[in-house]
User: Which sequence fits this backbone?
């Protein structure tokens, strides 16, 4: 099993104590986002977890306890943009995030931390020129601390983030402008020693040396673990190349408040769910209810020498 922590919310930044408690207890409960009464109980024993993939904008809160993950292999996708508070209102200031990235890289190794410049959105303030300036500033700081930068262009979800993006004055590049912009990103990345890749993008930028990325990356996990994995694709969305994973996060629980986010629906819902956070609950930002139907999720290691196993946790 590959454990995603998490596409749906920033667990390292806000809920790392809860996650470490789950590691100690050996299992986690996850509510089905499409059916609130269905809850899966999932073993996260090192016997079945091949790798943990962390997603975060601020890894600082989890760093003092990394020794508690010594039985696990893992890597970190660390998003660092250079937006103002009108776009990312509750993200730590840039210098602090850069310092955290560097410290984490020194701790776990540059091959296990990936810089995400993601998503890229354009407006009168955030022009291609300003993005290139920000990208160069961050790339020059992080080139010694990571091997790869992954980027994508903001996706519009009519029921989630389109209103926020419209109020910001969002606009899109033409195909020719986008190609030119990507070429400049590639030039900057190369000068800082970074491989560049896109996340779930249809556009082909291979001629600039920019590959299509797998964020849940089978090849990287095999490199980290030293084992061959028998795992299929996840297909989260169009053009996604990720390997299959189990995500343990909950939607509408991230206090960063980024206006482009598709995982938070309304601030009032987020506020209510954050108030429900209990570090001792098996489920994130909530509790198990009498009306819930709890089922044990069959999980297995994808390492080829393992057979399918179900652990009680």
Assistant:
């Amino acid at each position: 099993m590959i454990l995603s922590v998490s596409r749906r919310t920033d667990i390292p930044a806000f809920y790392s104590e809860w996650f470490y408690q789950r590691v100690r207890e050996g299992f986690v409960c996850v509510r089905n986002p499409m059916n609130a009464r269905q809850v899966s109980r999932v073993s996260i024993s090192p016997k079945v977890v091949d790798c943990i993939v962390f997603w975060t904008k601020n890894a600082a809160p989890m760093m003092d306890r990394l020794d508690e993950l010594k039985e696990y292999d893992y890597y970190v996708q660390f998003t660092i943009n250079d937006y103002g508070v009108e776009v990312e209102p509750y993200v730590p200031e840039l210098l602090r995030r850069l310092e955290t990235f560097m410290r984490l890289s020194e701790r776990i190794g540059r091959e296990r931390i990936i810089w995400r410049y993601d998503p890229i959105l354009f407006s009168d303030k955030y022009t291609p020129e300003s993005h290139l300036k920000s990208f160069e500033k961050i790339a020059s700081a992080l080139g010694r601390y990571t091997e790869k930068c992954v980027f994508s262009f903001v996706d519009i979800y009519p029921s989630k983030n389109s209103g926020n993006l419209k109020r910001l004055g969002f606009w899109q590049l033409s195909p020719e402008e986008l190609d030119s912009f990507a070429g400049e990103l590639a030039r900057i990345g190369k000068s800082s020693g970074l491989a560049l890749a896109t996340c779930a993008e249809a556009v082909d930028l291979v001629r600039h040396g920019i590959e299509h990325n797998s964020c849940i990356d089978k090849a990287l996990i095999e490199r980290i673990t030293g084992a061959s994995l028998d795992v299929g694709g996840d297909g989260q969305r169009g053009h996604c190349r990720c390997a299959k994973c189990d995500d343990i996060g909950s939607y509408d629980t991230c206090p960063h408040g980024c206006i482009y986010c598709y995982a938070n629906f309304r601030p009032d819902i987020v506020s209510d769910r954050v108030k429900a956070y209990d570090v001792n609950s098996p489920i994130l930002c909530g509790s198990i209810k009498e009306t819930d139907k709890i089922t044990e999720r069959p999980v297995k290691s994808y390492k080829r020498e393992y057979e399918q196993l179900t652990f009680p946790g």
